[in-house]
Amino acid sequence: MRRLNDLCYCSPAYGGYGLMNLGMQIPESFILFVGPRSCGRHSAISSLQNNNKSRNGYLFITEEEIALGTVEDEIYKAVERILATKKSRPKAFIILFSCVIFLTGMDEKSIINELSRKYQDIVFQICLMNPISIGTNHAPVTMMYSRMGEMFDCSGKQENYLNFIGNNVPVDRSCEIYEILNNLGVTKVNHAADMKTFDEFRSMGQARWNLIIKPEGLRTAKELHPRMDYRFTMTCYRLEDIRMQYEEIFSMLGKRCDLSTYEEKTKSSIKHASETLKGKTIALGSSASYRVFGLARMLVENGFEITDIFNSSDIYQDVPSFDSTDFNWIKENHPEIKIHSVCNTQMINGIGKCCSVDIAVGFNAAYFSNTECIVEIVNDEGLFGYRGTEMIMERMEEAAANPRNLKRLMDDYGLVV
């Protein structure tokens, strides 16, 4: 575990989805960010980039207000002012506390009770942004999903619905998972981003199963268990791992189906990309995948030339357990592959010159290497199962044929640093 006093470099290619963007997935909602001015800058810029300005606001708190204990009063005034300006009142109102407010020991329940009493047609929820909890079971994104799960309506009859929880972006609709789930009796697949109304969002509580493909959703699944059964199986790219992934899903549903057709199609996709990109050097970045070493292993095993891996954690101390087996395999079988820790402060001197490769997979790999052939993937977004591996292959071929500007790609995505 990294020591709290370690200094880390945070490049512009590091950012992820952001709590404000995640909260915006709740339809018909408004988010009020409460904290010092400096804490709101990045999320405010992100909101502008993602056209969410009308759905969130900022209450900047001073040291004096914290010392005098008047923060609660300022929150009540801000909510009243915001609602007074809305032609259509939000169905849900999220108050997001920064770590400074959280550390004051504020009574969350009393705030929710007071606001719920005054505005009975609105569901209020408090979420916490406490960066010092990163790496624990109450890290900011983990807690955001937990608080979102608390807003589900679990009082009704359960249906054969399945929720994806923890992945910021829905799995791409071309993925075989939808066809497989339908064939196995799942009548509806839910993701918060697909819900059109707040009532639809709350109806996710009627599901019978939760599928967790990112660790941030695991706490929520455990809190909703035993009402909803769940499986935690992260996006992976090796065919052997994908088979094991589906075995987990089959065990949850109590049914199974044949996967050979999907697997053969993916084998053809891998072979085509391997032949097309033969001789081209590739750098991988952890901004592309949670399991960057698993992705590297799959590519190496299929003849791709991986020269560099840019990892967001300390090379030996902080490789997550779900990627450690493949990390060790890479170190043992391919020691020629250079592994860089992008959080190392010395990396600021390596921007654009750590390596020279033909293709970079992920923004941070492109940022530190010298290429414009960039595979635009962030945290496995939209990728799952056999189709996820195929999409990696297709995007690598496309990137090799179509150089693009990294800064423009990052701006278009709206990275939150």
Describe it for me?
There is one protein chain. The chain is 41% helix and 15% strand. It has 417 residues and is an alpha/beta fold. The strands form three sheets. It has a five-stranded parallel sheet. The two termini are 22 Å apart. The relative contact order is 0.13. Mean pLDDT is 91; it is low at 1-5.
What are its keywords?
about 40% helix, four-stranded parallel sheet, globular, five-stranded parallel sheet, 17 helices, disordered N terminus, 13 strands, alpha/beta, about 425 residues
Largest sheet: 5 strands, parallel
List unreliable stretches of 5+ residues: 1-5
Number of helices: 17
The sequence of SSEs as H and E is: HEHEHHEHHEHEHEHEHEHHEHEHEEHEHH
In percent, how much strand structure appears in the residues?
A: 5-15%
Radius of gyration: 22 Å
Helix content: 40-55%
Shape, per Cα inertia axes: globular
- Average pLDDT, all residues: 91
Oligomer: single chain
Strand order of the largest sheet: 11-10-9-12-13
Structural class of the secondary elements?
Answer: alpha/beta
